[in-house]
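User: I'm curious whether this sequence folds into something compact or stays loose and floppy. Could you predict its structure so I can see for myself?
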Amino acid sequence: MKAWLLTKLGGLANLHMGEVAAPVAASGEVLLRVQFAALNPADRYLAQGAYPARPALPHILGRDGVGEIAAVGPGVTGWQPGQHAMLLRGAVGVERAGTFAEFVCAPADNLVAIPDRWTSEQAGGGSLTYLTAWQAITQWNLPPGSNILITGASGGVGIASVQLAKGLGHRAMVLSRSTDKQERLRQIGAVWAGSPDDSQWRKSLMEYAGGRKVNLVIDNIGGAGFSDIVDVLGPNGRISVVGRLAGPVPQFNTASLFFRRLRVGGVAAGTYSAAEAQAAWQDILKTLRLAEAAPVIDRSFGFAELLQAFEYLARGPMGKVLLAVCPG
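Assistant: Here's the prediction. I'll summarize afterward.
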């Protein structure tokens, strides 16, 4: 089969298209013919060697995907060749070969059916972002009607966070540098939108909220702006750290957490067990139905265009970026 192979750590330049043997479904596994796979920032970090996992090389990246079941291994029930399924979570693309290939093997309990009215493209990019956003919101047991600020809100996890916050009855407030994206985020469900480049964004947000009344920040960015998001949190405020697109947080004063009893927690959807992910997924689908929401896809690239797709992802798209592997 054709696959994108990471031949050594150090960056995406070490990705090369090659021919490898197609995997065979072992006991409890399903072999999927990949139709669409989604790109994630974590793929870049793993390629750079800046990720905890150290897979054997050459390695196939790609954590999200949808496709047609080509074969099932011994002991698999509930799935049959010819059915279509999407990956939910697991070691695919991290400790084991991923979806930037014509075929991928995954444990059967890491698959779910494509939700009603979702396209194959939406299914190819929906699972990881929603699981991540779900964990970011629900790990704090927020009361209904909480104020949630989302940084980097036009990305996959950002949009998923807006949609899920709306469905859960919270108020989503977003930061995005693009006024066009701010307007689209309002259409999706954000009640307030601002730009991190605007020196007055904190004042504007607090005027809208009536003071320091943000209950949770979902931070996809990190970097020097971290102190600013701490500043707008109310008493007992929480921060879910999802990404670090702007790099490490420099010289952060931990004393700023003391008197409002603020809490900071990491988010890693890969820590869900298979059973936890399946249960969370059912709750996510119910919440999306309440919000009348579905995955937002920015653009699909051809299978041979993976490097161009990563360049496009780095420019900050509005939604998910996909690789059309075997779309037919």
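Summary: The CA atoms of residues 3 and 101 lie 4 Å apart. The radius of gyration is 20 Å.
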